[in-house]
Amino acid sequence: MIVKARIEHQKDFLFMEEIPDTYVPDHRLSEKSITIKDAPVGIKNYQLSTNGLFLVHSEMKFDGPARILTEVEGEAITSQFIFSNKNSSSPNGKQSAKYGRSRHNIRYIPSAKEAYDVKPDVEFVYFLIVLSKDYYLRLVDLYSPLHEQFVQEMEKGISTSFAEHDLFMTPEMRRSIEAIISCRQDGELKRLFTDARITELIMYQLEQFSQHIQGGRESLLDRDIPKLEEAREILERDYIDPPTHKQLSKMILLNEFKLRTGFKKYFGSTIYDFVTRLRMEEAKRLILEEGKNMYEVGVNVGFKHQASFTNAFKKYYGILPSDVRL
């Protein structure tokens, strides 16, 4: 399996790797970092590969129009994530959210060449996992109608994808990606960690694909996506004392109904559940890493009463906050 990509009219490849198809569990990982600065393109790549696996995290900035040429020789399953942000201000005059759009999909490619036109003044963060068929089938061992249909098409050698159109990334997917690229382990531990996180990431994708098909929901409007990203950033910043739905809708210039339904559709979580997760993760960190007492933790994550914090923590984690250290 050979995977390669380059910018049209540029000599240097963004990446070009020949990956053995056979899955070898204890084969070592190979890592490299590449920086390309050649106007109008600026690219910073982190790559990781081993038998049956190629992974790239690429930060790209285009000051002018460009075309990305990609090619896969041999059968491959790709799990692709794209974050993009046009460098402009939001309607309320504030800087736009970090990621104006985010998309993902899983595809089976028996061999293909593709070209992507990129508009100027755009920043991309591109995360791509390429798996051989052998690696994918060993890593993803589950039963679901959606997965079975995907495998059947794959066995026929037919190009296919889990979703007809790319879907929006969830916060869980973002955290899995961040964990993969920030892993500080090495050797066998890093291999085990990478396999586990890739499996986790694919599970999150399959879960969202299944929900999307069952729900039969219409796509979000492109103009609403930066506003929802802005809402997420506000909640991540102010989760201790978050704005009400009405206040948040005014802050991002989106009506309450679109805010509630769009947030759930885009991020796969209600606003309430999203804030609860942020509070509970920070609470656990404060207990384990800073050794704060339960009253301090509750106050620091936005609870006015100790009993309310204790009940919320137990409902979320299944144990009392005082039992976390045991």
Automatic annotation (TrEMBL):
HTH araC/xylS-type domain span: 229-326
Organism's domain of life?
A: Bacteria
From which organism does this entry originate?
Answer: Pedobacter miscanthi
Query: Which GO-annotated molecular functions does the record name?
Result: DNA-binding transcription factor activity; sequence-specific DNA binding
Keyword list (alphabetical) reads:
DNA-binding, Transcription, Transcription regulation
Q: Which Pfam family, any one, appears in the UniProt record?
A: HTH_18
**Gene3D superfamilies, sorted:** Homeodomain-like
* Official protein name in the record: AraC family transcriptional regulator
Q: Does the keyword Cell division apply?
A: no
Q: Which residues form the signal peptide?
A: none
